[in-house]
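[stage:ingest] chain + small molecule (N-(5'-phosphopyridoxyl)-D-alanine)
[stage:ingest] validated
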Amino acid sequence: MNTVFLNGEYLPADKALISPMDRGFLFGEGIYEVIPSYSGQFIGLAPHLNRLNDGLKALKIKTSFTLKDWLDICNQLIEKNDGENLALYIQVTRGCSLQRHHAYNNDLTPTIYAFTFGIPNAPLADKSQVKTYKVSTDQDLRWQRCNIKSTSLLGNVMHFQKSVEESTQETILFNSKNELTEASASNVFIVKNKVIITPHLDHQILPGVTRFILLDILKKYCEYAVEERVVSYDEVINADEVWLTSSTKEVAPVVAIANKEVGSGRVGELWLAAQTLFSQYKGHYE
Ligand code: PDD
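[stage:predict] done
[stage:export] tokens:
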């Protein structure tokens, strides 16, 4: 049985009980993080915990947890659970109200929950072995605070479900001006004429940790130009390469968008270069 962390205690998952009056349950009012670890080494732990704190500040949820407390929970859960490669899920909600009311009191005690789940081995920079993605597209109908990693994921779930219904593996999203935002559970990069491009950060997309690490690595070690800017729908469907990035996928090549092949329909050379560098340097971002 998995060991989880709930409100200061480590306990078997089936003993973790949360009140039905929890605002995370009733309103989706919480923040979460998914942090990968391979053989006990976290990738991007500091940027993930920084983003967690940014989200708590945005929601005005106060905890007494210091960075050391968070690090201790992360390390304890990895030690207490089996598995070579484990992702850590951390969730903090505003806690329980006595009555269901949109307004909340500032003195609620947050509910802090964390657990681990197994993930595949880290992706290899190998064109013959990498998992490729066929994706759907959709107009981005989510709210205008997507920079907050909120547990209110209904918009993301409904967009992702479109890919399930269309037998693809993710849905790439475009705003009302038909500009690329991100995918329902990943950031998106495109390559055109050997230039690597991704949307700049704003309220429309999550500031992905993998995006942050990849951009830093590319700018430091890669020969190709890198741009963060508005990307049009036409640029995406006519790209030479398209990648998805997330903590669980790292850099994932997309070979088809809405049944149209991306470039040659095969994994590209710049993906190989990017994933090679990511695999080589990701351990520097603890
Ligand atoms: N998803 N954009 C969205 C909407 C996401 O949900 C995620 C991550 C990302 C990539 O962020 P990062 O590189 O920090 O993982 C971008 C996580 C993995 C999830 O919800 O499971």
